[in-house]
Amino acid sequence: MKHLLYAAVALATVAAPAVASAQPGWHQERREDRRELREDRRDYRDTVRDARRDGVITPREAREIRRDAAEVRRSEREVRYNRHRADTWRGRPEWRDYRGARSGYWYAPGYGYRPVMRGYTWRQGAYVPRAYRTYYVQDPYYYGLRAPPPGHRWVYADGNFVLMALATGLIASVVANAY
Length: 179
Fold this sequence. Notes:
Elements: H1 2-22, H2 26-52, H3 59-79, E1 105-108, E2 112-115, E3 152-157, E4 160-165, E5 171-175
Antiparallel strand pairs: 1-2, 3-4, 4-5
């Protein structure tokens, strides 16, 4: 019996690295997705440059440009945040303290859990309360948000993204229930 146990342990020791290398972790998949996105963008730029070189874009070149642009968009969707895919937020530093939904609280990535402000409606033209004005979104592109115009910042607000004027706190835009 003892020999059988030793054999099982030896087999597990030998097989474990092979199994681990055969199944890449989510962080390795994410790194590969980003690498593919960079390659797709490079291919797109090269195709556009080659097509414009002679000053005339042929129908074949136009099809190739559209195909490469669609490939870039597809790769961007894989890399961006998706609340329905857990692997899109795992491993990001601003989500390291996230432990799931909590009643009465919302999670501000990078800032932790905060109590929900009851009775406040996030709408364009209103003002962001002072307590929320410092919860800046670190990477708007990751969440699929456009770059903020000068003098504005995206902030986290009760599970919404709010585009706020820095000087006044005036809400320019709201993306409700975005994360």
